[in-house]
Amino acid sequence: MLKIQDVSKTFFPHTVNEVQALQNIDLTIDEGSFTCIIGTNGSGKSTLLNAVAGTFIPDSGTIHIDGLEISSWTEYQRARLIGRVFQNPFAGTAAEMTIAENIVLAMKRGKMHPLTIALNKKVKSEISDRIRMLKMGLEDRLDNPIGTLSGGQRQALTLLMATWLRPRLLLLDEHTAALDPKSAAKIAELTSEIIKEEKLTALMVTHSMQQAVDMPDRIVMMHRGKIVEDYQKEHKKRVRIADLLDTFDRVQKRELFDESVAKLLIREYI
Amino acid sequence: MEIRTIKTDKALLVTIKERLDASWSEYFTDTFLEYIRNGEHRLVIDAQEMSFLSSAGIRSLLLVSKELTKVKGDFRIINSNEFVANTLRTTGFGVWLSEAKAEDILPATKEINEADNLKNLFIISKDSGITLKLISNWKPWENISESKIKRVEFLPDSFALGIAAPPAADKDAVLKFGDFVSLCGHIVYQPPEERSRPDYFLPMENFVPQLQTIQCIYAQGEMSHLLRFSPEENKENYRIGELASQALSITGSSLAAFVILAEADGLVGAHIIQSPEGEQSFTPTDFKKLRDWLSFSGERAYAGEQTLIFGVVAKHALGGKIDFLIPLSSNPEIAIHAHTTIFPYQTLQNGKLDLMHQITKFFNGPPPKGLMHLIDDNRPSTGLGESSFTRGAMWCAPAKWEEDNV
Ligand SMILES: Nc1ncnc2c1ncn2[C@@H]1O[C@H](COP(=O)(O)OP(=O)(O)OP(=O)(O)O)[C@@H](O)[C@H]1O
Ligand SMILES: [Mg+2]
What we know:
A: 270 residues; alpha/beta; six-stranded mixed beta sheet; four-stranded antiparallel beta sheet; B: alpha+beta; Transcription Regulator spoIIAA; 18% helix; binds adenosine-5'-triphosphate; binds magnesium ion
């Protein structure tokens, strides 16, 4: 469904600040699958999602969605296929607009010639039906400005908006990280529910090992712009938090394995 | 709650003030388990000022008492007020109550009293010794020809270390060679995939574990001495080199075999993560390639866990089979080869320990967490140093090489 082939991205090339944020990434995501991306800070997780969403054009490589080569599409063009939720609950919504108005915006997203959608009774009742499933009592507050909601409520709405049009692909970038633990758990639960119910294909970046173990059906681990581990099927099912931590450990150990270690082991290991 | 301790030569006297209830029970348990870990196996609680004892508190006392039973320790409550005494009696734990006074805390039995007086060194069997055989002698990263592979049975009176693969069901199957250690016929083997935890093989009634070895030092016989060590003033830990030297001097030999069962202070080592094959295309010149073959601990690992080591040590001047023993850089007088496996921590009983009993106990508990070939990391400035231990036991015996091998 999503096919990332040999994608690389270097920021500030040929300078002292050069960062190889993505190095020859190959990743194929199946229709209807839910994948978590984990990895240390700066390992390239967000950059990978940005490459898919079209925030920038990679230096090399191709990206296909449903067999369509979208590598040269603009971010706006891709928004038709892709729903996104970011870490910051204030990112995806307009604070001074009401809940209902924000949702109407979401209903028009990615459409070249959006039909004017009137906020009539019928539309409003459709909106409140879907908001009811959030079980946050927001269906009675459709005319309140979004700015009056808590971070958790706002992130729930953002999630609902991002999936309103059933995108071909849902990208979530640490969308529970800025919330208090209780709200984070609630949003995580809601995320799993929506993905399952709408049969969405999803890529989610998280720092929570617990979420990575509990939520998806595949875990991809990144380190320094590369995919260093890919747990699928039975391997994913048996994985526990301790295993993920072990893997992090191993990846970091490998990094410490420099020339001096090599010399030591050549001398001392027999 | 408030906890205060007084250490006497007979026991650790612990005064508990105020409530031992659900909100304090966890803290209480942790504190007491730490005492036990530190070798305090005779605990006396002064309960005069304990104002309340709930079921959660009793549960904690029970946990502590069980832990002490495991190490043949002793647990008593003295000076208890009416309330505490009644609570314990009515719940069936009256046996913990003792009439003793704080002033005259006495050891529970004569036997323990004797154990107390024993020195740290125990002679198990003065005339015992170990015969060493170098059964297979592959060195990284030579080719592995058919003749390099030797099938070995690990008998109950044997110890071994090296590189080997479990026998495959199908004779054409590719053998996966990784590091192993074997103690009294109990094998721990590290499969050469990075992800894998160590695997292990236990002897059963009619089953003697076997491996296909390519490098194997095989020791057979009985240990002659047991040394117990624990932190002392000005000495917080024991380096492997120190213990190995001790093994040589205790046994009065220039070649010795040793088994160490101890709480790790930090282990430094490496293990194979890619099985060597028949035709080696690899020579370890490029470190970027070497790290696909060996994993290095990279830190002083497994602190606080229980490490179980088999090793061989020789005075460096010995020569001969010394090429499978590596001179210790911190003490080039001696050369060592040692493999360790790591188990989750369990408290060891004080005093004389039976090696076979300990090995069966650990192998029948939670599975081993790791395995490595210990390395003395002497890199200038960045070196992690030698593996070291906080407290534990070392069994050792004089050893000699058997002539006809390989
Ligand atoms: N727009 C940009 N300009 C310059 N450098 C960037 C840009 N975006 C990312 N980087 C750099 O690329 C590397 C990868 O960053 P990225 O944000 O993808 O990491 P991440 O895995 O999402 O980390 P985190 O867990 O901290 O969110 C980092 O070193 C980062 O500084
Ligand atoms: Mg990020």
